[in-house]
Design a protein that fits this description.
Number of helices: 14
Low-confidence stretches: none
Number of strands: 11
Structural class: alpha/beta
Distance between the termini: 12 Å
Oligomer: single chain
Mean pLDDT: 88
Shape: elongated
Helix content: 40-55%
Largest sheet: 4 strands, mixed
Radius of gyration: 24 Å
Length: 368
């Protein structure tokens, strides 16, 4: 599973690393809604939540599905501007002005992206004009609760009013807490953007992407960027650009904007307290599958306590050596055990450092 971006024809002049105040505000709102996703920000989230006015907190709850379970593209309006080469604004006000330039159809699609699970990376009929799609959107919203139905009805009945409401909410959040946060993190993001831009200039896109995350790779021959995620998607830059957006509040999320007709964008965390080379989805799948078998679970109990030969394990478990070897092969392929030779004996042992990281790697993988 992965999200790929076809960059055939993409020139270096159309690749940019630019911080986005509106994107960072969206990430901040997500961290406030889901502090468990961001253990390093829990102190900040607690302090901000404590000083929010009840009125603002209630208004934030009205549309928290735009940022709670995922990240709506309303926070990246630059990507939807015709020509697909517009960059994020330098200030929140500039980015909200870009939001106002989106068509009603674009705004509705972006706002309903996860509210109603409408199609994302393919052309689709807009619910503003298609009664069948409108009914479908409302049916899907109903499964999420009454407040989501009310929001969806308002959105479909009068997009400009909802857009104005959303802009005012973002401005009020900025005044209440985000302006202070942005003044603190913007220098770090600007410094990271300068560093990645220099990498692009001197070393090329492949090295810049490698510096962004071990989960992002470039096949130079195929002209394809692959982002290792538990999701499937595809995008083509075409005659548009590619924007890399650093975030200080986003770890462990690595977000790829691949909406149909929009500019390609990757939002990446600048500080990653996790592994420098995160486990791939394929590695995680292999490890989880290896541990799902009861015999291999029992083998791990022995191998966690010390190193054993295949013969010793066969005796202990009442199985033949070939049977044990097949299970050990699965564990070894999953990189869960280490093997060493002592004379004519080969001993196996559980790699506790890998196993101890499995839980955090799984969480990082599903949240990536």
């Amino acid at each position: 599973m992965s999200v790929s971006i076809d960059i055939t024809g993409l020139t270096p002049e159309r690749i940019h690393v630019v911080p986005s105040p509106l994107s960072e505000l969206g990430t901040a709102l997500h961290a406030l809604s889901e502090p468990a996703h961001h253990p390093g920000l829990q102190g900040w989230a607690t302090a901000v939540s404590a000083r929010l006015s009840p009125c603002l907190a209630d208004r934030m709850c009205e549309a928290d599905f735009l940022w709670r379970t995922t990240f709506s593209d309303v926070f990246a309006p630059f990507a939807g501007i015709p020509g697909r080469t517009t960059l994020p604004g330098a200030t929140l006000a500039e980015e909200l002005d870009l939001l106002d330039k989106l068509t009603d159809e674009q705004f509705v699609d972006a706002a309903l992206e996860f509210t109603c699970q409408l199609s994302y990376d393919q052309r689709s009929t807009n619910p503003l004009h298609d009664p069948k799609m409108r009914r479908h959107a409302l049916e899907l919203a109903a499964a999420r609760g009454d407040h989501q139905v009310r929001f969806t009805k308002r959105l479909l009945d009068d997009p400009p009013v909802v857009r104005a409401w959303f802009r005012q909410l973002m401005e009020d959040c900025n005044e209440a807490f985000f302006a202070d946060t942005w003044s603190r993190v913007s220098q770090q993001l600007a410094a990271d953007a300068r560093h990645k831009t220099e990498l692009l200039r001197r070393m090329g896109l492949k090295e810049a992407l490698k510096a962004i995350s071990g989960a992002v790779s470039l096949d130079e021959e195929a002209r394809r960027i692959t982002v290792d995620k538990m999701a499937v998607g595809h995008h083509v830059t075409g005659d548009g650009g590619l924007v890399l957006v650093p975030t200080s509040l986003g770890w462990p999320h690595l977000m790829v904007l691949h909406r149909y007709g929009w500019q390609s964008s990757i939002t990446y965390p600048v500080n990653t307290p996790g592994l420098a080379a995160p486990a791939s989805v394929e590695q995680l799948t292999r490890r989880m599958a290896a541990l799902s078998h009861p015999v291999r679970m029992r083998l791990c109990r022995h191998l966690a306590r010390g190193s054993y030969t295949t013969g010793e394990l066969a005796d202990a478990h009442g199985m033949t050596a070939p049977e044990i070897s097949r299970h050990l092969s699965v564990l070894k392929k999953a990189e869960l055990i280490t093997t060493r030779r002592r004379g004519r004996y080969v001993q196996h042992q559980l790699d506790l450092s890998v196993v101890s990281r499995l839980g955090s790697e799984f969480i990082e993988g599903v949240l990536r």
